[in-house]
Amino acid sequence: MPADLAVIGLGHLGLPLAQAATAASLVTVGYDPDPHTVAELRAGRLPAEDGGTLTAAELRRMLATGFRATTEDAELGRVRTAAICAPTRLGENRALDLGAVEDAARALAARLRPHTTVLLESAVHPGATENVVRPLLEEGSGLRAGRDFHLAYCPGRADPGNRDRGVTRVPKVVGGLTPACTEAAAAFYGRFCEKIVRARGPREAETVRMWETNYRHVNIALANEMAVFCHDIGVDLWDVVRCAETKPFGFQAFRPGPGVGGHGTPIDPNYLSYQGRSLGYPLRMVELAQEVNGRMPRYITQRCAALLNEHGKSARGARVLLLGVGYKADIGDQEGSPAREIACRLMELGAQIGFHDPYVPQWRVLGRPVPRVDCLYEAAAVADLTVLLQHHRTYDLQGLAVKAQLLLDTRGASPAGAAHRL
């Protein structure tokens, strides 16, 4: 019996999509080339690197209602719809590495049947659906996109850890190779998504993803620049944010932090390596935002050293406790988290690093395990400096500020005057 959906790539995009489809009674199979990921999912365990995409209870419900994870690409030949959710990351020269997307397209192409709807959700450059995925599917299958099978780009809009913004509740943008492709994609997502937004085509849908990601990075960069500026002139940045966000027009509050992580990689279309060309000019705002956000871990390290020095201590030999090492609050996903660079820089200064994170049982930096503390308040009382990198809901910052010898809050979450804030 054919499945309704095959999700190719069971990571931060694929698992929520599979969960939403399964909950809507769609027969769903998940394909991933990594045997470890598949084995963990089959056993009802979330892979350690999953970091909060799903809960264990949600995974168990998926399995109980028929979801299957597999490494066998033969399963891809028995589906009506296939969604490519393979991961993409920045490779050398800041170009997106589409290797996993290409591998997924080849695996699907070998099994592709006529009338299948193929959806691409991975983060890609504008033009990748037509110039990268389409040729691989057509060459491997002998079928033609738009005539023998439907092809569309539908940007993933995952917000891990946010139960109010799951796949079904966030409007789904779809852009097909042809109008029929767009309608096929809209019909599929319409079975479990509350709202469908039709783009003119795949390039427009791809650019939606690029714009959304770059918008986040540019505005966080402005917040980070303001944080440094306000500290230098003695202004309480967090009070500025509190007041400014009351403006009901022309302003959206973004908050600074120790750096920007996550799977939403800022994309500069100047680096279109898969086409073997560039536009000849960068998006200057994107480049500058990347530069500003990339400086924050170094700035946080400098603030740590300065705080220790102000209290008569040297960074060398200081005991520093890092709280929250994932890239986002209330999840353990460490993709792009600034915590690792901050820990590396503190180690280079001679500090002794420990960490606490309720979602991360083990953490390694520079190939070495970092000691994990179990008794948070006791550890903060002993540490020369405690640094809040992520404000997990489980943290009582009022109590922590009382116990810690020195507390640097990079998230502005502690009460005014209770800690040193970014």
Please outline the helices and strands.
Layout: E1 3-8, H1 14-23, E2 28-31, H2 35-42, H3 56-64, E3 68-70, E4 79-84, E5 89-90, E6 96-97, H4 99-109, E7 117-120, H5 128-141, E8 150-153, E9 172-176, H6 179-189, E10 196-198, H7 202-233, H8 237-244, H9 284-310, E11 319-323, H10 339-348, E12 352-356, E13 364-365, E14 368-369, H11 376-382, E15 385-388, H12 397-403, E16 407-409, E17 420-421
Parallel strand pairs: 1-2, 1-4, 2-3, 4-7, 7-8, 9-10, 11-12, 11-15, 15-16, 16-17
Antiparallel strand pairs: 5-6, 8-9, 13-14
Helix pairs in contact: 1-3, 4-5, 7-9, 9-10
Distance between the termini: 57 Å
Number of strands: 17
Provide the residue-averaged pLDDT: 92
Low-confidence stretches are 273-277
Question: How do the SSEs run, as a string of H and E?
Answer: EHEHHEEEEHEHEEHEHHHEHEEEHEHEE
Helix content: 25-40%
Protein model, in words:
With 422 residues, the chain is of the alpha/beta class. The protein has twelve helices and 17 strands. It has helices spanning 14-23, 35-42, 56-64, 99-109, 128-141, 179-189, 202-233, 237-244, 284-310, 339-348, 376-382, 397-403, and strands spanning 3-8, 28-31, 68-70, 79-84, 89-90, 96-97, 117-120, 150-153, 172-176, 196-198, 319-323, 352-356, 364-365, 368-369, 385-388, 407-409, 420-421. The strands form four sheets. The protein has an eight-stranded mixed β-sheet with strand order 3-2-1-4-7-8-9-10, with helices on both faces. Strand 1, helix 1 (14-23) and strand 2 (28-31) form a beta-alpha-beta unit. The longest helix is centred in the middle third of the chain and has 32 residues, at 202-233. The model is unreliable at 273-277 (pLDDT under 50).
